[in-house]
Design goal:
signal, Rossmann fold, Thrombin, subunit H, Translation Initiation Factor IF3
Length: about 350
């Protein structure tokens, strides 16, 4: 367990010793694990991969300190702290062999400052909600229609991001994003629920248009991505462009001419980088969820649709003791897990938050 504890700390503690300009380091490392019994073969392989990842993190540079407590010759406490130079950005398995009861796994890993552009991208199940529109009364009369065109463009853009899987475009915003709050809501009963699934994210943009000196038209975007548990990430974008020249049709000209599309494109120039930055950050974060007791095991509302595989390992990430769990059943939107330590009862983990690390298969 000490090796596994070291792995989790080495991979996931914020880097303390490296500078922001430190390059990624490519290293090779080996890991070993013993098969404890007939049903332990796959779990032992994952422990060997974890051991190799730890060795790679240490090879790239880490500060390790620890102590061991012994009572009458029996180890009662084995604690280690790792302050890592970087984190595992990517890894691939070079070879794996099972000789007798011992797994031997060799990997190549890229270790550096995370998350960065090299982080593994997970799938975000996204519900796009209607944009909040705020149009300055001094802006041209056609600005409201222009704002709606901009909202459509944003949804089209997010659907192209490799980390985003656009599951639906909702017609209204929910009273509450999570599971609660809509059971007796009138709109939910008459029009159907628009709340987020437990493994989903909601995209909630705010679009502000106002007339400024020049005369120019200013677009201010607040791009918000919210998980079902309420955690949110926000990206801001502001751009100003000259107002169109007056037309014989007056203020209605932008509504009936391609000029509206052209103006939307001009205002949105560069916004793709802001939107990509929002989804890049979220896509680089490991899948996480809270454990729920289920049929003698533990269940999380994330699954294959979120990028999990049978080889994913879960670790507790709530500030308490660091524990590791493996997946025993995997579905599209959920997974069932059990502790890697067979002496730990699953019920002891109920309510704890976990994050996932991919070990290969």
């Amino acid at each position: 367990m000490r090796r596994l504890l070291l792995l989790l700390l080495a991979l996931l503690l914020a880097p303390l010793a490296a500078s922001a300009d430190s390059p990624a380091v490519r290293v090779e490392a080996e890991g070993f694990a013993m098969v404890a019994g007939p049903g332990d073969r796959d779990a032992a392989r994952r422990r060997a991969v974890s051991d190799a990842l730890l060795a790679a993190a240490l090879a790239a540079g880490a500060d390790v300190s620890g102590h061991t407590a012994v009572n009458r010759g029996i180890v009662t406490s084995d604690v280690a702290i790792v302050r890592s130079v970087g984190r595992i950005l990517r890894h691939r398995i070079l070879s794996e062999t099972l000789s007798g009861a011992t797994w031997r796994v060799r990997i190549e890993a890229l270790v550096g400052e995370g998350p960065g552009p090299l982080c593994p991208v997970r799938t975000l199940i996204v519900t796009a909600y209607p944009a909040t529109l705020a149009v300055d009364p001094h802006a041209p009369a056609w600005s409201g229609e222009l704002a709606r065109t901009i909202a459509e463009r944003l949804v089209e853009r997010l659907a192209l991001h490799p980390a985003a899987s656009l599951s639906r475009v909702a017609e209204r915003r929910p009273t509450r994003l999570g599971r609660g709050g809509e059971a007796f809501d009138y709109q939910s009963l008459t029009q159907g629920s628009v709340r987020l699934p437990a493994n989903g994210h909601g995209f909630l943009p705010t679009i502000r248009l106002r007339r400024v000196a020049g005369p120019r038209l200013e677009l201010a975007l607040e791009l918000k991505l919210v998980a079902a548990d309420g955690t949110a990430s926000v990206q801001q974008f502001v751009r100003r462009v000259p107002l169109p020249r007056p037309s014989l049709l007056g203020d209605l000209s932008v509504l009936v001419q391609p000029q509206r599309e052209a103006l939307a494109s001009a205002l949105l120039e560069g916004s793709d980088r802001a939107l990509d930055a929002l989804f890049d950050r979220a896509g680089c974060e490991p899948a996480s969820a809270r454990l729920v007791a289920a049929g003698g095991l533990l269940e999380v509302p994330v699954g294959q649709a979120n990028g999990l595989t049978p080889g994913s390992l879960a670790f507790t990430a709530d500030g308490g003791s660091t524990e590791i769990l493996e997946i025993v059943a995997l579905r599209s939107g959920s997974a069932r897990l059990r502790p890697l330590d067979p002496t730990r009862p699953p019920a002891a983990f109920a309510g704890r938050r976990v994050q996932f690390v991919e070990t290969g298969r």
